[in-house]
Amino acid sequence: MRKLTPRIRLLAAVVVTAALSAGLTSVMTAGATTPNVSYYACLKAGKLTQVGTSAPTCKAGATQISWNSQGPYNCSVTPYVGVDLAGCNLTDDNLTSANIYGADLVGTNLGGATLSGANLTGANMSAVWLGEDGASKAATLTGTNLNGTNLTNATLTNATVANATLNDANLSDANLASASLSGASLNDASFIHADLEDANLASASLQDANLANADLALAKGTLGDDVFGVTWTGATCPDGDFVDGTTVTTCVGHGF
């Protein structure tokens, strides 16, 4: 069985402390004979708020997450449609062409993993780690089906997402700095407040995508022909210009 990620261990520690201070003496740890306890919190920029045993209403930009006192016990299962791998450490795993439509991958560590050709349609990948760090390379998602996937607050720094399909995907507040999105289909996708600094968007399709307040500084590549209906309001363009809706109304011609 794979180990829990450090993030989930930290969450558990925070919850136990919060629960004890609140007088919730019924909180039990994994292995106890009492019923498993589910916990909830709001996650934003690596920080937890509103930790407790009931689902909170999170503020804008924060993601509601949940886990339990037992922890993820099925991290070593063979992936299948709708599999629950939330919080698991799947670093460097080979999930090429895996069919995990609708999977729960909230907070999962997929650093260095290979997901090329995989079907992740409709998966919940909020706060997932697909980026590069000192321990592993970034994930490879070449040709991956990510249509309708929830990638809010996800980390994809330096990830390879070339020729992937992310139509209707939600990447609000995601970090895609230096990621390769060349040839990707991003139609109707949401990149509100996303970090796309130095990302490669060559030949990417962005029809009706929402890039409001996104950071596209130093982003590169000639966009595909499908750039109709893009929302650029508040975005920072590759050349550093700001889309104010008056002087600058689009990033096309401003680095793209």
Question: How would you characterize this protein structure?
Answer:
The structure is a single chain. The protein has 256 residues and is low in regular secondary structure. The protein has two domains: 6-68, no CATH class; 78-256, E3 ubiquitin-protein ligase SopA (Pectate Lyase C-like). It has one helix at 6-21, and strands spanning 38-44, 47-52, 63-68. It has a three-stranded antiparallel sheet with strand order 2-1-3, covered by helices on one side. A hairpin with a 2-residue loop joins strand 1 and strand 2. The longest helix is centred in the N-terminal third of the chain and has 16 residues, at 6-21. The radius of gyration is 19 Å and the shape is globular.
Shape: globular
What order do the helices and strands follow? HEEE
What count of helical segments does DSSP give?
1
Total DSSP E strands? 3
Calculate the mean pLDDT score and round it: 84
Oligomerization state of this entry?
single chain
- Global structural class: little secondary structure
What would CATH call the homologous superfamily of the largest domain? E3 ubiquitin-protein ligase SopA
Q: Regarding CATH, which class of the largest domain?
A: Mainly Beta
CATH architecture of the largest domain, by name, is 3 Solenoid
Rg over CA atoms:
19 Å
Describe how the helices and strands are arranged:
Elements: H1 6-21, E1 38-44, E2 47-52, E3 63-68
Antiparallel strand pairs: 1-2, 1-3
